[in-house]
User: What shape does this take?
Amino acid sequence: MRLYTLKREQIIKRPRAEVFRFFEQPENLERITPRSVGFEILTPRPISMQTGTVLDYTIRLLGIPVRWTTVITVHEPPNRFADVALKGPYSFWHHTHTFEELGNDTLMIDEVRYALPFGFLGRMVRALWVRRQLKHIFDYRADVIRELLESDIAGSSGAKPSRQTE
Assistant: This one.
């Protein structure tokens, strides 16, 4: 199994506790995910984020609904939380969300480690589609996060651009 890593960093001009509260509300994931992904939370609400919380949702891959189940494996407010896929389109998915205080701002770091099924075919699909799709999703998220969390300071310096490594 070939493991890939996607890492994004974004400075958000909001205090860490406030940013963490936004991200620990699973409903906000719907707000920061492109509509084209067809993301829908199936878990009954309200959802209490804590270690052991299981989240069920669907996404659309090439128009086909795919069920995805994750579990929160780490929940350390306001520093970090992590989710691991129990079921979904990836053979391995581990997403760590880290929040570092920068004065009155927050450095948010997303690190996703993932693997695709089907060996060589999975590597081809990643090269041709998955890598680009993940970049699109995280670019969209960065823009929406900036808009939602910094809307009252629009027109000022705003958030610094996010950085991605893979």
Notes: The chain has one domain: 4-165.
